[in-house]
Write a structure and sequence with these properties.
seven-stranded parallel beta sheet; 14% strand; 267 residues; 8 helices; alpha/beta; binds nicotinamide-adenine-dinucleotide; single chain
Length: 267
């Protein structure tokens, strides 16, 4: 049972096939929302949506590449067609490519900018167009962007990624301001997750050893835990529950906020 009630709400979660996004889709569904999983991974995304359906939720998969404008147009149209509206967008899709600053590869930085910054910007654009008065969904709603503790706390080996996640923070503020000023009725917030051992999180820890920054992935993880007042890594459900809160009416007077969900690491 969820603390917050999203009965009747319609949600799209980008990068919802696996990892944090799949957990967010599951938590939104548990709170009563109908959920569309959008991802470039079709097989995994369909399996995630099927599992949600088997648990009794209204759920579907739509193909979505967040870097592609036409893909956003068709995914938002398909979501509204499938669910009958759109009230919640979680801009979760993201990639991380580790490197020392001295070894940065322009192609890797461009790819992270495309997915993590352009992807969120296009998500905001198409959410606003769909949700604002007169749009095909038209009932306002909430956007939750997934930034990172990397935007609030410096960590070696992830300069390009940290820059893109700081950009997500700024996109959140400007979008929240425009939505408020222009009467769109859409709240926009972001969360800064701490390290969670998803495929991305576990690989990031391995990269710290590969880059020579820590003797092993375990040592890097141990130092993250040591820097975390609550004394453990994050879990998928920790992030998912925070997203449900920000998407719900419990957060009705919260917009333009960034919520650390990192056990205190970034304070
Ligand atoms: P993950 O790699 O396990 O999952 C990411 C998902 O995004 C995958 O399903 C992938 O297919 C999808 N995706 C990638 N590029 C896409 C694109 N162009 N269009 C649509 N979907 C795309 O990663 P995760 O750990 O679940 O991370 C989810 C989000 O949380 C990311 O934005 C990440 O930066 C952020 N985050 C993760 C951690 C962590 O420790 N895991 C910490 C802070 C922030």
């Amino acid at each position: 049972m969820s603390v917050y009630d999203l009965t009747g709400r319609k949600a799209l979660v980008t990068g919802g096939a696996r990892g944090l996004g799949a957990g967010m889709a599951e938590a939104l569904a548990r709170a009563g929302a109908a959920v569309v999983v959008g991802d470039i991974r079709e097989d995994t995304g369909k399996a995630t949506a099927d599992a949600l359906q088997r648990s009794g939720a209204t759920a579907a998969f739509v193909p979505l590449d967040v870097t592609d404008e036409a893909s956003w147009e068709s995914a938002v149209t398909a979501t509204i067609g499938e669910l009958g509206g759109l009230d919640i967008l979680v801009n979760n899709a993201g990639i991380e490519i580790s490197s020392l600053v001295a070894d940065l590869d322009p192609a890797d930085v461009r790819r992270m900018l495309e997915v993590n910054v352009l992807g969120v910007a296009l998500g905001l654009k198409h959410a606003f167009r769909a949700m604002r008065p007169g749009g095909p969904a038209g009932a306002g709603g909430a956007v939750v962007n997934i930034s990172s503790v990397a935007a609030t706390f410096p960590f070696p080996g992830i300069a390009g990624y940290a820059a893109t996640k700081s950009a997500v923070d700024r996109l959140t503020r400007v979008a929240a301001l425009e939505s408020g000023k222009l009467g769109y009725g859409v709240r926009v917030n972001c969360v800064y997750p701490g390290l969670v051992p998803t495929e991305m999180g576990a690989r990031l820890a391995e990269d710290m050893a590969t880059l020579g920054l820590w003797p092993s992935a375990e040592a890097a993880v141990g130092d993250v835990i040591g820097l975390t007042p609550l004394g453990r890594l994050g879990e998928v459900s920790d992030m998912a529950d925070a997203v449900v809160f920000l998407a719900s009416d419990a957060a009705r007077f919260i917009t333009g906020a960034g919520l650390p969900v990192d056990g205190g690491m970034g304070m």
